[in-house]
Amino acid sequence: MAYQFDFLSTFDYGDVIVKGVLTTIELIAIGGVLGIAVGIFGAWARTQGPAWLKPIVSGYVEIIRNTPFLVQLFFIFFGLPSLNIHISEIQAAILAMVINLGAYSTEIIRAGVQAVSKGQIEAALSLSMSRMQIFRYIILRPALQKIWPALSSQVVIVMLGSAVCSQIAVEELSFAANFIQGRNFRAFEAYIVATLIYLVLAILLRQLLRLIGQYFITARRNA
């Protein structure tokens, strides 16, 4: 018999889908901002920071970039309670996303920092600016302008990777799809809807990040 599509049965669980979308947005909103902040600190530490901090940050970056995100998530959610550190499912998901994005964005931002003209840095040093002032006012913005497309792509990748957070019962979009197909046994329709929503979210997020990037460029030119 030919398969009969029934997408309406999926949208009967519209409230579950909406909750999943909102949770996914919450994860990437918090995880994205904090992850980029960690990346900026990591890039500073590896290029301008004290000598003792550089190997620590380098080790963190190598560990995170060479281990699966799912394992990192499980380590945080199931491993930390062994150290008497108890956090909720969504807190574990956000922490895992921050740590993961922070490691990747550290290397991306570091590449931008290293591309900044040494002449600008030397001019700032001649004005007796501190290393922190130089990084904040002279290096950071030009560096972000250079690497913003790559950083934006990494944020989108992390947002899509949040789908595995359903493995620890975070009620995001993939959790919603699993829940729906478990109720109506319409796996094809449930996952097609989830896929299309992820596609829309990725496109919207990329456009939002592009607008933020344009803001940095505009601000730089008007400075």
TrEMBL record:
Keywords: Cell membrane, Membrane, Transmembrane, Transmembrane helix, Transport. Its main location: membrane. Belongs to the binding-protein-dependent transport system permease family. HisMQ subfamily. It is found in: Cell inner membrane; Cell membrane. Residues 21-209 form the ABC transmembrane type-1 domain. It is a multi-pass membrane protein. Coiled coil: none annotated. This is Amino acid ABC transporter permease. InterPro entries: AA_ABC_transptr_permease_3TM, ArtM/GltK/GlnP/TcyL/YhdX-like, MetI-like, MetI-like_sf. The chain crosses the membrane at residues 20-45, 57-78, 90-109, 147-170, 190-209. It holds the Pfam family BPD_transp_1.
